[in-house]
Amino acid sequence: MSQTQLSADQILEIAVESLEDVKGDNITVLNVSELTDMMDYMVICTGTSKRHVNSLGQNVVEHAKSKGLQPLGSEGRDMGSDWVLVDLYDVVVHVMTEEARSFYDLEKLWDIKPEQR
C-alpha cells in the first residue's frame, strides 16, 4: 500500500489521464496485485519516438506532483531513452517506444490479461 493519502485506483487514474493528455498510444493497465506486493497496477504505454517517450514520462511526473503525489522515482527520462519508468507507489508506469515494447513484452512476461484503455 502507498504512503500517500490516495488510493491505488486514484493514482491509476492520475497516471492514465497524464498519458492520455500527451497522446500516449496503446495504454494498457495490468492488475498485478495478486502477483506481487510491490504494486497494485502496472501501466504500459507506447510513445511514437524517444522524444515522445520522454515527454510522456515527464507529464506523468508533473501531473502526479500537481495532484500532491510525489513520485518515488523515475528512470530513463533523458532524450536518448526508449523506456521511461515512473514509480507512483502502488502504480508503476512504463512508457516505451514500439520497438522496446515489442522486445520486452511486459504483458507476456507478467502473463495476465491486460485491460485496454
Automatic annotation (TrEMBL):
InterPro entries listed in its UniProt record: Iojap/RsfS/C7orf30 (IPR004394), NT_sf (IPR043519)
A GO BP entry: cytosolic ribosome assembly
Endoplasmic reticulum among keywords: no
GO molecular function: ribosomal large subunit binding
UniProt xrefs under Pfam families: RsfS
SUPFAM superfamilies: Nucleotidyltransferase
Record-annotated membrane-spanning stretches: none
Assembly: Interacts with ribosomal protein uL14 (rplN).
Protein name according to UniProt: Ribosomal silencing factor RsfS
Gene source species: Marinomonas aquimarina
Gene: rsfS
